[in-house]
Specification:
By secondary structure, this protein is mainly alpha-helical. The protein folds into 3 domains: 403 residues, no CATH class; 149 residues, no CATH class; 116 residues, Alpha Horseshoe (Serine Threonine Protein Phosphatase 5, Tetratricopeptide repeat), CATH 1.25.40. Helix content is 63%, strand content 3%. The chain contains 32 helices and 8 strands. A hairpin with a 5-residue loop joins strand 3 and strand 4. Helix 26 packs parallel to helix 28 and helix 28 packs antiparallel against helix 29. It is globular and about 100 Å long.
Length: 750
């Protein structure tokens, strides 16, 4: 009675086509940051990504790398596009079925639920973001909703001879898809509840259970790929699962031990609020002045759907409610996130947003049914009511597409690929470059493998250098890294504290061991993204996005010729600067990309100070302007630019720069402080006094502002006022002997 009709399928394909077109339009055509670069590379070479290895994703991804169009990365990104669009299709079918069962409706009344749920889900922030890049979550979402749909179809055929086949298929798909993402299994408890509610005796049939167990073993056997492939030593072989023991460590994600759920790594209230923040951001209808209303209206619609579903069809409500609770509260408890995660963790909860969207669709149809009853369903205006009401709700479900489009359109985003190119291209032959984490490593691995670019360079990831398996791979596999350590010594590496009190982590030990064993035969570099330079600061020469490590200790410096060549000849500035050198703001850059782009600006910034130090003031201004253009949010460049103008005889330009900047950063005391310096250079002492006083008001502990204000008073012959400023500072910092000594000398001379 509630099975899909041909018309239901036709409408589902229309929804699928619309969503597919939107995803294709906004799909990343290049290499994204985070795990995507690793997934692209491992799929292309049949490698092994980070634990738990995701073997099925790699195998499916390998098939997509063979598609006859576009860049290899785009083919893998299209896998997410297609699987997400298919997940939307089956979300439509599930929601239509639930609407029919709950409200006994057909046609447009049921389709409204499916369309609203599908569009809200498709264009929710996190789901859409996952749909434009190579990630495991979209395939996992597809598997989850397909198996839920299959369980409802099984209910239709329950009692027939072939009904068990559907359950066996569900068991096999879920077990197989553990090879995509373990989270796929989160839908299983809901499906089990449906089976028990339909006929609990199904779960007691020994033959059926035995067959399910056998299929589960068969499905999970896809993980044998990891064992077999690791023994062939692919270029990317994370955790190196060449033995059964190592394979088990990979499968249980031993490298990322989660810790006990009973020892909270942050306040539970904080963890719940983190989820709630993510949840309320998903379905926003608009931004701006009424953004709170735009975020909560869809959630209110979903809550209405929860109510309608609970009172109309308790069996399917319990199924959906179980899945939602496990994917939200259950994951909050299990994942146990800290309050200082390295990135936003919204993607872990994507299944909860997905299944909540179904309730939004049910809510829309439930309200329509209520409205029709209130206006006498068989009135002449029924068609007008249905069409108007449906149109408004469908329009509302499409508003997130408009709201999120700019921030989710990644079709022109090549920043990650260019970042990898710009780091590798300038390096000397057979170089070793130490990188920090995912974003300065995976894109490099990716272009090395899929573009065969600079494979002579060995990228050594410092995070992985803490693990014995990775150290051995660097030692044994081409291009090998020099080190004089046996397997026994590598296994025995452990942090220690030296006589100075410094703690040497395993990766610190390995960096110095590699440099010692290399004996300067091969060039060694450290990426500028590495926060801890491991005691090598005085041996580093900046060359752009990397520091070259030298045997001599000169103090931190730069190679002017190489910097200029890299910044103006070698680097690909696509996505950051236009050909004319102005900022490229044609597409959205998320917080991660914005931070990484600042590494380019920091190179220009450092070069500007180099020119300033060597007396090349015009070039110093040019580089500081370029730093500002490369990254408008790189505030240090903005703070210094006005002073550089003044030092170059362009004080009026510096003044105007700071006056404009104050409008952007009205609470930045340092900008006011530097404006005061420019006003001093212009002879505007009264205005300088006001600048310094405002800086002190904003930041009462800003010592330089007190010194600047004192200097202005002294220049103006207002000695007492100047000394009063210094005495005010001593009230804040009584231990400042330099200022106290100055005041004492002033008193002695008077």
């Amino acid at each position: 009675m509630y099975t899909e009709t041909k018309k239901d399928w036709y409408v589902s394909f229309v929804v699928f086509a619309i969503v597919l077109a939107a995803y294709v339009e906004t799909m990343c055509l290049s290499i994204p940051f985070w795990d995507s670069g690793e997934f692209i590379a491992t799929s292309y070479i049949l490698g092994i990504p980070h634990p738990p290895g995701t073997p099925l994703y790699v195998l499916i991804g390998r098939v997509f790398t063979l598609l006859p169009f576009g860049y290899v990365a785009a083919r893998l990104n299209f896998l997410s596009v297609l699987s997400s669009a298919l997940a939307v299709l089956f979300t439509f079918l599930v929601t239509v079925r639930l609407a029919k069962m709950s409200f006994r409706v057909e046609g447009w009344k049921a389709w409204l639920a499916g369309i609203v749920a599908s569009f809200f889900m498709a264009f929710s922030s996190t789901f859409w973001q996952n749909s434009t890049e190579s990630e495991v979550y979209t395939l996992s979402s597809f598997a989850m909703v397909v198996t839920l749909w299959m369980s409802l179809r099984w209910w239709d055929s329950f009692g027939k001879d072939h009904s068990d086949r559907m359950l066996l298929a569900i068991a096999y798909i879920l077990s197989l898809c553990i090879g995509i993402h373990l989270g796929t299994l989160l839908v299983a408890p809901g499906i089990l509840i449906l089976i028990l509610l339909v006929d609990w005796r199904t779960a007691t049939r020994s033959r059926l259970i035995a067959t399910v167990c056998a299929l589960f073993v068969l499905g999970t056997s896809v993980h044998l790929y990891l064992l077999l492939r690791a023994r062939l030593f692919p270029a990317i072989n994370e955790d190196d699962p060449t033995t059964w023991h190592d394979l088990w460590l990979v499968l249980k994600r031993d490298q990322y031990k989660p810790g006990s759920i009973f020892v909270r790594r942050a306040d539970f209230g904080f963890q719940v609020s983190m989820f709630w923040r993510y949840f309320t951001d998903q379905f926003a209808l608009w931004g701006g002045k009424f953004d709170t209303l735009g975020r909560y209206l869809p959630i209110l619609l979903g809550a209405i759907g929860v109510y309608f579903h609970a009172i109309a069809n308790r069996k399917t409500f319990l199924v959906l409610f179980t899945i939602f609770i496990i994917c939200s509260l259950g994951l909050i408890i299990y994942l146990n996130f800290t309050d200082h995660e390295v990135r936003e963790r919204d993607y872990f909860y994507v299944a909860s947003y997905h299944f909540f969207a179904i309730w939004m669709g049910i809510g829309a149809t439930g309200l329509l049914v209520k409205l029709l009853k209130a206006t006498k369903e068989h009135s002449k205006n029924q068609m007008l009511i249905v069409s108007t009401f449906s149109g408004l709700f469908i329009l509302a479900s499409l508003l997130p597409y408009h709201h999120f489009h700019f921030s989710h359109d990644r079709s022109d985003d090549t920043i990650a690929r260019n970042f990898a190119y710009n780091m590798l291209a300038p390096l000397e032959k057979d170089a070793i470059v130490f990188t920090n984490g995912d974003n300065d490593t995976f894109p490099l691995w990716c272009i090395q493998e899929i573009e065969n670019f600079r494979k002579d360079v060995r990228v050594a990831n410092l995070s992985l250098l803490r693990t014995p398996w990775y150290v051995k791979q660097l030692r044994d596999h081409e291009p090998t890294v020099p080190m004089a350590l046996s397997d026994y010594e590598i296994e025995g590496l452990a942090p220690y504290r030296d006589s100075t009190g410094r703690v040497w982590q395993t990766n610190d030990i390995m960096v110095h061991e590699i440099i010692r064993a290399n004996d300067w035969r091969r060039p060694v570099y450290i990426a500028v993204t590495v926060p801890d330079q491991m005691g090598l600061e005085k041996q580093l020469i900046l060359e752009g996005l990397v520091f070259r490590v030298t045997p001599q200790a000169y103090g931190l410096r730069l190679d002017e010729a190489k910097m200029m060549k890299n910044l103006y000849e070698t680097f690909n500035w696509g996505g950051i600067l236009k050909p004319d050198g102005t900022q490229d703001s044609s597409f959205y850059k998320d917080i991660n990309e914005t931070r990484l782009v600042q590494n380019y600006a920091a190179a220009n910034f450092t070069l500007a100070f180099w020119y300033r130090q060597t007396g090349k003031k015009n070039l110093a201004v040019k580089e500081m302007e370029r730093a500002r253009e490369v990254s408008p949010v790189f505030v240090d460049a903005a703070r210094w630019l006005g002073q550089f103008y003044a030092e170059n005889g362009q004080a009026a330009k510096g003044e105007q720069h700071y006056l404009n900047l104050i409008k952007e950063y009205p609470a930045d005391a340092e900008i006011l402080y530097r404006l005061g310096g420019v006003h001093v250079a212009m002879g505007k002492m009264g205005e300088a006094i006001q600048d310094y006083r405002r800086a002190i008001e904003l930041e009462p502990t800003f010592r330089s502002a007190y010194a600047g204000l004192h200097d202005v008073y002294a220049r103006s012959g207002m000695v007492n006022e100047g000394n009063a400023v210094l005495r005010a500072w001593l009230e804040i910092d009584p231990g400042d002997e330099e200022i106290r000594g100055y005041l004492e000398r002033q008193g002695a001379s008077q």
